[in-house]
Every structure is written in structure tokens, then in C-alpha cells.
Amino acid sequence: MDKTVASAAQAVADIADGASLAVGGFGLCGIPSELIRALHDAGTSDLKVVSNNCGVDDWGLGVLLADRRISRMTSSYVGENKEFARQFLSGELEVELTPQGTLAERLRAGGAGVPAFFTATGVGTQVAEGGLPWRYAPDGSVALASPAKETRQFTVHGTTLNYVLEESIVCDFALVHAWKGDRQGNLVFHESARNFNPLVATAGRVTIAQVEQLLDVGEIRPEDVHTPGVYVQRVVAVGPDTEKRIERRTVRQRPDGAEETS
Hints:
2 domains; Glutaconate Coenzyme A-transferase; 7 helices; alpha/beta; 15 strands; 3-stranded antiparallel sheet
């Protein structure tokens, strides 16, 4: 089955207002920027987005956020996006902050068909006990807070500890960026751009992959596949020259006096 589509615009055309969306990447590394741009151009709004963070003010998911296209974020941190912080603190945006490892496992569990799991992360804090601000009121008070979660004791390797129940995540759509992909949707991610992308790819009812290199079936060795095509419904080639940005650029002087980027 050939899952390729002609353009990013065509790939995201049926994402409707109010849809839930899982988006791969970490910071600006491995983000599906062309799919995000196409979604922005389409005017889609009221999106409920699950992603490790929300890009920066003028790139990635930050472009959607700046135009008030996102109504809710599930993330592990606010990151370098000042507009993200401003909208959250002013009550314009609902935000569910989730420990990073828990967020990763919630996505993985969703893709594996596991409805929920217990973890020790967050026990004894507002993550488990509830009360974390999800949405502020304009006066700075908490308009919506996180609910308390079920906790239970388990004995693991002879030690009894408390664990908190976390629900898995499945979204209407998932957007990912891959280094290579074939026409059946088998994907390979490049080094650190792998990050959240494989997890996100499994957590969408419809998964859309933008790929730098589009290959024919059989050109990717089975042992090199990071995400099997069974999880992917659409593939769009964006080329190796698709723009990539650095979240924060720092430089230091080399011994010979030339600048070195780190």
C-alpha cells in the first residue's frame, strides 16, 4: 500500500477544529515543521496538543500558539517559549504539565493499547494529590486544577512503595518528522531527532510523517526500522533541505581563535 501524499497541505487537510494532536520532537530537534506550517496555513484552531514542549515564539508549535490556534497543551515543560508562559499565566491557555518520563510512557502505553499504568513518579506531590493549576483566571487565581489520582502500594524486589495511576494518551492525529521513510510508512529517525517521535507515531489514530528521504519499499533494512509502517497512515516527502533551527545557539573560542558552535 502506497501511503504517500503529494503535499503537507494535503496530508493535514482533514484535521478539523478541536482535534487532539500528538506532535513529535524535543525543543526544535526533530519537529514536523512542514506539517505544522501547513496546519497553520489551513487555519485550523482549538487544537488540543500533546508534545514535550511548544516550540519557540516564532517556530514549530509556537507559530500555532501565537495565533491562538491551540486551546490546550499537555507538555513536560514550557521551555524557551515566552508566549507559552504568558498565555498560561494569563488564563488564555490550559496546560497539563506532566513529568517528562511519564509523558513518554503515557504516549507509549497509548500506542501499545495499555489504558493506564502505575508509576512512582509524582507520588507525594500535586501530580498525584491534585491541585496543579491547569488554567488560571484573569485575576491570577486557579480556575481549573488537576484532579487527585488513584494511588496504590506495590512491593517490588522486596520494597513496598506507593505508586500513582497515570492514564495513557491516544490522539486523533499524530505528526512526526523522520529522516527516512518508505512508501509503506516504515520510518527511520536520525540520531537525537528520534526523541519523542517513535512514541508519538504510535499514539495517533491517524499518523502523518514528513520524511527527508522518501524511499521505495525494500530500501530500508527491516532491522533499521524504528517505527513500522503499520502505525503510519500518510507519508509526505519534504526533502533534506527542509529548514531546521537551533533552539539556543552558543559559541566558544577555539584554541586557534575561530568560533566553535556547541
